[in-house]
């Protein structure tokens, strides 16, 4: 059970920060004393980034923000919906599907309380192909052996959307449904032409494949008219580039990305989310993010609203208007 600070409790703290600070403390008094961020597994990216953010946005003793290990996007969205956590990290596509009751959430009802605090960093769509398969475009996947990721994954839904941008469906390819590491092993053995992966670069499975594959790998571009069509229809996608030499022997490639986003519930008080959003983009946070994790450098205020497929929380919206990012 969460403890809520009363106004008397806040006054008893006696910090003497003046009338303005007292008003801020009273705003927090209306919200939870503890604000949790659901992240991912301890070996992934969400967990350490969540810990960094929690440290810089905490405002003790009024609000203690903590990051906790979780099972990623879907689990975090469900936790927010049930009230088990106040916020969490989610891929932009998963957040959109939850809010609209589509994709992975088809038939499960809409999570209408879901609100955006900030887009954090891009999770790039990798379309990995064996050089021997000579795949230069998404259109070239026709008739090829392609893994779309396992059933129930966000990557599988994204892969189907990418195919549709070039007029293809699962029936136009020899579809397989493997995890990326399994697909990479099969490609190394000559049994797979291409596979999809959605995540931050570099990822170890692809890096190892690029370094050990006898024929080498290509990253197939996802750009041009097909990509423009997809972005116009699905607002959670954004244009992205994977830099040259991210993977051995692979040049720069244009692709799409879904954002890793920080989401919360509409039930969290506006003043609480306002102060948290303001703290996220403070100079203190900037220094910590730049120094603390490779992905931290990609968490930029300028891209805080990129790929937003769900409504902003009113508290976050207030901050972005003050910062000139929204009219």
Automatic annotation (TrEMBL):
InterPro entries: TAT_signal (IPR006311), TRAP_TAXI (IPR011852)
Pfam families according to UniProt: NMT1_3 (PF16868)
PROSITE patterns linked: TAT (PS51318)
Domain of life: Bacteria
UniProt protein name: Immunogenic protein
The species this protein was found in: Chelatococcus composti
């Amino acid at each position: 059970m969460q403890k809520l600070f009363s106004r008397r409790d806040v006054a008893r703290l006696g910090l003497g920060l003046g009338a303005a600070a007292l008003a801020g403390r009273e705003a927090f008094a209306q919200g939870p004393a503890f604000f949790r961020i659901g992240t991912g597994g301890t070996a992934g990216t969400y967990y350490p980034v969540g810990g960094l953010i929690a440290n810089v946005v905490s405002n003790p003793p009024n609000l203690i923000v903590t990051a906790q290990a979780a099972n990623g996007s879907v689990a975090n969205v469900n936790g927010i919906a049930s009230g088990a956590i106040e916020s969490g990290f989610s891929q932009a596509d998963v957040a959109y599907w939850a809010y609209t009751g589509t994709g992975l959430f088809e038939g499960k009802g809409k999570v209408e309380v879901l609100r955006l605090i900030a887009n954090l960093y891009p999770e790039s769509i990798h379309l990995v192909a064996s050089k021997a398969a000579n795949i230069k475009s998404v259109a070239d996947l026709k008739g090829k052996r392609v893994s779309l990721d396992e059933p129930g994954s966000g990557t599988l839904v994204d892969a189907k959307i990418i195919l549709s941008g070039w007029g293809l469906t699962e029936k136009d390819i020899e579809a397989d449904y493997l995890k990326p590491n399994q697909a990479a092993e099969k490609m190394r053995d000559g049994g797979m032409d291409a596979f999809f992966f959605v995540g931050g670069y570099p990822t170890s499975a692809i890096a190892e494949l690029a370094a050990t594959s006898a024929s080498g790998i290509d990253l197939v571009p996802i750009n041009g008219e097909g990509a423009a069509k997809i972005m116009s229809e699905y607002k959670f996608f954004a244009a992205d580039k994977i830099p040259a030499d991210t993977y051995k022997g692979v040049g720069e490639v244009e692709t799409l990305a879904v954002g890793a986003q920080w989401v919360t519930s509409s039930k969290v008080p506006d003043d609480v989310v306002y102060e948290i959003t303001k703290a996220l983009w403070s100079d203190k946070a900037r220094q910590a993010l730049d120094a603390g994790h490779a992905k931290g450098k990609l968490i930029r205020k300028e891209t805080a609203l990129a790929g937003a497929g769900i409504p902003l929380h009113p508290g976050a919206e207030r901050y972005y208007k003050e910062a000139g990012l929204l009219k």
